[in-house]
Design a protein that fits this description.
79% helix; two-stranded antiparallel sheet; mainly alpha
């Protein structure tokens, strides 16, 4: 085999040019979900309450969605520009967060430090998250036309798996890098951000260099481009797109509401010593749901069916925990512990599966034209859910039930149980959207016609 042939081979290899760079990008930016690992440490180190610093994560998810919505056209036109923006923004945001944590340690209760963390972790990293999330998705669907769901699920699974991979590393760095402390918290908390900023910059930059669309794909320009994003959306009843957006938003809101209380719920059922292990298993289910549900959808005539399955499972398990009072009565009861853990794991899986199926569901309904822009607009649901999911659960827990001592921490079992009443209702609304607003895709209608013709 000649050298030119070998070069051409790797340049047109769908794994090297599509899957691997997508994983490098998504497994880097997916570490945003490691926030709970160090959020309390940040709050204590800079002298602010945890509820004040929690907004940094909410802003990160909000600006992820907003940047995806408003920068989707840039991704559509030039994936190299968008992946480079993602690389610099994500790394700069991490480094800036580390700097302001250090500054906050030197200047206790500093408003500048808190705002700096909001801007760096929330806004700058958020822009990197949105552009980094979008950049590989269309490219993957072009490389893997026959198995689009599996391909996008593989990459988006990297986003979910990032927490499982990075959590033990970050936990180790928090203690291993500390040589001094402020308010009882080691200074490894800000050093970790600076080191990881460099590491993730390298990984994402390599992904940026490798990412490439197939050479036989030519992005339409000018008159060949066809109708714009909103014209494509309006080519079908607007209620169809609204249904997709709302059910996506509700799935994320419910997922974040439960996931944000996950550690406390695990402590309620008497598994405080296993919080770390259960958190890792949850992350595996999150990643597995992204890959499994999207691969499952590839074999379905209508991808919307997978959302019906996700919502039905979530409703059934939520109802089971509510009826058994699993969170309040779970400690010491093996059956109730299994039921509560099943809810946690399957909500994580459905949360991830909801993400991985969005781009392929949209492509089935609206085609590949402007898919990055339409996908970006839809990810605005993620942004709004980032502001409502965690905060909704926190508000409920703070206003219902009462706090009790459990070992060395305070928990509110009734409050966590009450969260399920709200998420259960929201899951029902999401299912109704999936059933009655989201219409069968063209692919599903063609399959139905073919089936009738063969009878």
């Amino acid at each position: 085999m000649s050298e030119n042939t070998q070069r051409s081979g790797w340049r047109e290899n769908k794994w090297i040019r599509g899957a691997i760079p997508a994983l490098l990008l998504h497994m880097s930016i997916g570490t945003v979900y490691c926030w709970s690992i160090f959020s309390q440490e940040i709050a204590d180190y800079i002298g602010w309450s945890k509820s004040a610093t929690e907004w940094a994560f909410s802003f990160a998810i909000f600006f992820l969605g907003m940047s995806a919505a408003f920068l989707g056209n840039i991704v559509e036109k030039d994936i190299h520009k968008s992946s480079l923006i993602a690389t610099f923004c994500f790394a700069a945001g991490m480094a800036g967060t580390g700097f302001f944590i250090w500054y906050g340690g030197q200047h206790q209760h500093s408003l500048l430090a808190l705002i700096g963390i909001y801007i760096c972790y929330g806004f700058i990293m958020g822009v990197g998250l949105g552009t980094g999330y979008l950049s590989p998705v269309k490219t993957l669907m072009l490389w893997f036309e026959d198995r689009k769901g599996l391909a996008t699920g593989l990459a988006v699974a990297g986003f979910g798996a990032a927490k499982a991979i990075a959590s033990p590393i970050m936990t180790s760095m928090l203690t291993g890098l500390s040589v001094a402390s402020v308010n009882g918290v080691g200074d490894g908390v800000w050093k970790m951000f600076l080191i990881l900023a460099i590491a993730y910059f390298v990984l994402m930059f390599v992904g940026h260099l490798l990412l490439k669309k197939p050479s036989d794909w030519h992005e339409p320009t000018g008159a060949d481009k066809g109708p714009g994003m909103f014209e494509v959306i309006k080519s079908k009843p607007l209620a169809n797109y609204i249904g997709i957006w709302v059910m996506f938003y509700l799935n994320i809101t419910c997922g974040l509401a439960l996931i944000s209380q996950e550690k406390a719920i695990v402590k309620c059922i008497g598994l405080a010593a296993s919080v770390g292990i259960i958190s890792t298993i949850s992350a595996v289910f999150n990643a597995g749901g992204r890959l499994g549900f999207s691969a499952m959808a590839d074999g379905m005539k209508d991808r919307n069916t997978v959302y019906k399955i996700i919502f039905a499972i979530s409703i059934a398990l939520t109802a089971l925990v509510i009826c058994t009072n699993g969170i309040t009565n779970g400690e010491g009861n093996v059956l109730l512990i299994v039921i509560v853990l099943s809810l946690i794991f399957m909500v994580n899986a459905g949360y991830g599966g909801g993400f991985s199926n969005v781009p392929t569901l949209l492509s089935d309904h609206y085609g590949m034209s402007n898919i990055s822009a339409i996908h970006g607009l839809t990810l605005s649901a993620w942004g709004f859910a980032g502001l409502t999911g965690n905060q909704l659960a926190t508000w409920i827990v703070n206003h219902f039930g009462s706090w009790v001592e459990h070992g060395d921490v305070k928990i509110n079992p009734v409050g966590y149980q009450t969260v399920l009443y709200v998420t259960g209702i929201l899951y029902v609304v999401a299912l109704l959207m999936s059933l009655f607003l989201v219409r069968p895709s063209d692919k599903a209608l063609e399959a139905k016609k073919a089936k009738k013709a063969n009878k």
